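Here is an idea for our session: we take a single protein and study its fold together. Start from the sequence, derive the backbone structure tokens from it, and show both lines together. Once you have written the record down, we can walk along the chain together:
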Amino acid sequence: MPTSAIDFAHFFDYLLKSRSRLLEWVRAQPAEVYTRTFPIGLGSIRATLVHTAAAEWAYVERLGGREVTLGDSPFTDERQPEFDPFATAWERRAPVTRLALALLGDPARPLEYVSRMGPKPMRIRTTAGGIAGQLMFHEVHHRAQVMAMLRQVGVAAENLDYSVLQFERTPVG
């Protein structure tokens, strides 16, 4: 499907539904599980979730044509050391992200920015649709890592698939 036909806000709504379930699983764990070291993802549930929220914030800023510097993000381990304030802040940010995706305009609109996230600055050329897609795929990637961490502590974290959460299902026969 060409990006011009994609309703990015609709797919973000699915992300919010699956994110809510993921955060419920995390919230139900003892606080030490949130910061426990795991050999996957970014090393802890906190680091992985905070990184995901920070990336979402950065992608929305870039969609709006704003320059992003690491220190500007409201989502860092230092600013969000505990789960509940972090989860609340990320939930409050969701309408801003959804609106940016709903008002994306032409997904083929070219965007260019300098990323300073790696070892050296890189010029990135993409499209508005490319950033919108990356915002969503990035969360799914890290969500799977957090789910694997939760499974290691005994949480049956599964069934966040799009079809499970979004398709209408009715019994037959």
